[in-house]
Specification:
With 80 residues, this protein is mainly alpha-helical. The chain is built from three helices and no strands.
C-alpha cells in the first residue's frame, strides 16, 4: 500500500473524527479508502448512465407514446 500525507480542512477533519467515534472504522486511512472506493463505484455508475443517455440521444426521436415507452421499459426489465 502506498503511504500518503494529506491535509484536511477543520470541518472535514472533525467529520472524520466523528466517523471514527462510531467505531465503524478503525482509522482515518480506512475511512478515506472506503470513501474513495465509493466514489470510484459511483463514477462507474455515472459513466454507465451517461453512455446510455448519449446512445439514446443519438438514436433519434420516437413516435411511440409515453405508455408504449413505459411498457417497453417494463418488458426489458422483466427480461433482464
Amino acid at each position: 500500500m502506498v503511504r500518503q500525507s494529506i491535509s484536511f480542512t477543520k470541518p472535514n477533519d472533525e467529520w472524520l473524527k466523528d466517523q471514527l467515534d462510531t467505531q465503524e472504522y478503525s482509522s482515518k486511512s480506512e475511512l478515506v479508502n472506503d470513501l474513495i472506493r465509493q466514489a470510484r463505484k459511483q463514477q462507474v455508475e455515472i459513466d454507465w448512465v451517461r453512455a446510455k443517455l448519449e446512445k439514446a440521444e443519438n438514436s433519434g426521436f420516437t413516435k411511440d407514446s409515453k405508455d408504449q415507452i413505459l411498457n417497453q421499459s417494463k418488458s426489458l426489465l422483466k427480461n433482464a
